[in-house]
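Researcher: Let's do a round of design. I'm pasting the structure tokens now; please hold your answer until I've finished.
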């Protein structure tokens, strides 16, 4: 019984976790949508097939992008992650 409750808590916790992309501010969303695929490809190259590293990279990239507060910084960030504008 304890195991079932513990598993339910784990599953509910995982399903309610917010995706990092959700925190991207509205003014940064168009550039994110334009460049997210290139940035994910960059992460795939960095992780060299390790799915865990790949997911971590994608989440870290989204969080770092979301923290940027001006267009110039966003453009510089996506360019550094192989998004050609």
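Researcher: That's everything. Go ahead.
Model: Designed sequence:
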């Amino acid at each position: 019984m304890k195991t079932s409750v513990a598993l339910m808590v784990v599953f509910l916790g995982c399903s309610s976790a917010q995706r990092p992309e959700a925190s991207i501010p509205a003014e940064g969303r168009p550039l994110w949508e334009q460049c997210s695929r290139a940035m994910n490809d960059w992460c795939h190259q960095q992780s060299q097939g390790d799915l865990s590293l790949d997911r971590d990279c994608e989440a870290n990239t989204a969080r770092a992008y979301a923290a940027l507060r001006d267009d110039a910084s966003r453009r510089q960030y996506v360019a550094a992650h192989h998004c050609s504008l």
